[in-house]
Amino acid sequence: MSVHKDISKHSSKQNQLVQQFMLLDERREKEIDEAVQLCLAEQPFTTDKINQVTNEINALARQGVVPQRKLVTTKMVEEYVNSKLK
């Protein structure tokens, strides 16, 4: 019976990590969208909030269940916006 409990506990922990990842990834996308909108409006922006969430995601990823995300630079945002304007 303890094997079943261990498996259940392990599955529950993995599910919790995936749920956390999904929430963080959604937050990250919102921060990216905000930076893109500011860049499109030619307003100053930073990627600090994006990378703060990215670091939280990568901390979860080190536990081996969810994927890592790349840190974002202002140049990356600018290049993305410029590619959409062409």
Q: Separation of termini? A: 62 Å
Quaternary structure type: single chain
Low-confidence stretches: none
Helix content: over 70%
**Beta-strand percent range:** under 5%
Mean pLDDT: 93
Q: How many beta-strand segments? A: 0
Helix and strand element order: HHH
Number of DSSP helical runs: 3
Coarse shape: rod-shaped
Report the C-alpha radius of gyration, rounded.
Answer: 17 Å
Give a quick account of the main beta sheet: strands, pairing sense, barrel closure.
Answer: none
Number of domains: 1
Structural class: mainly alpha
Q: How does this structure look, described?
A:
It is a single chain. The protein is mostly helical. The protein has one domain. Helix content is 76%, strand content 0%. Helix 1 (2-40) runs antiparallel to helix 2 (48-61) and helix 1 crosses helix 3. The model has no long low-confidence stretch (mean pLDDT 93).
Q: Any chance you could write out the topology, listing elements then pairs?
A:
Elements: H1 2-40, H2 48-61, H3 74-85
Helix pairs in contact: 1-2, 1-3
Key traits:
86 residues; mainly alpha
Summarize the structure.
The protein has 86 residues and is mainly alpha-helical. Helix content is 76%, strand content 0%.
